[in-house]
Write a structure and sequence with these properties.
Elements: E1 8-12, H1 15-23, E2 27-34, E3 37-48, E4 51-56, H2 61-66, E5 72-82, E6 87-99, H3 103-112, E7 123-127, E8 131-139
Antiparallel strand pairs: 1-8, 2-3, 2-5, 3-4, 4-7, 5-6, 6-7, 6-8
């Protein structure tokens, strides 16, 4: 007889593991501001160091949002969730997004990152991983009386901003 009641716990992931998991999947969602409201677009990506690299068309709302002279903060989320076992992980990177303007870097990323849509993707965007929050959804729950587990800050204090839920 199974005692699994279907409830799960969220366990905070260290920064390096969260980035490794993000690099293990080809697809995620970029979250940006469009006309003062949140907008989300599905895109494929690669990870270069700690940067998330995406490609899009210069005419898209994502490219328009980051093409201005001011710094634009975006979020990038990817996950892998098994709906049968209700386990998996989710990673959110938050940071400054900039168009890659160096022609050699842009050409290299265009070779490495093939888009999934049939539109010309002439714009490469780099998202700096200023904040990385990753969580694993695992079997089990906290016991009654323990209260909610406190998420711990991932990795050593490296001077980067961090947010605990």
């Amino acid at each position: 007889m199974s005692t699994d009641d279907g409830r799960r716990s969220l366990v905070k992931l260290p920064r390096d593991e969260a980035l490794r998991l993000l690099a293990s999947v080809p697809f995620g969602r970029v979250v940006f501001t469009q006309r003062a409201l949140p907008a989300i677009r599905p895109v494929n990506h690669i990870i270069d160091g700690e940067d998330v690299i995406i490609r899009t068309n210069l005419g898209t709302s994502v490219a328009s949002a980051v093409s201005g002279a001011r710094d634009v903060v975006v979020a990038y989320e990817a996950d892998s969730i098994d709906t049968d076992t209700r386990t998996g992980w989710s990673v959110v990177v938050t940071g400054i997004a900039r168009i890659v303007r160096d022609p050699q870097d842009s050409a290299r990323y265009q070779r490495l990152l093939r888009t999934w849509v049939n539109d010309p993707a002439d714009c490469v965007i780099r998202i700096r991983a200023d904040i990385v929050n990753g969580f694993r959804l695992v079997d089990g729950v906290t016991h009654a009386g323990e209260g909610r587990r406190r998420a711990v800050r991932s990795g050593p204090d490296d001077g980067r901003p961090g947010v605990d839920p």
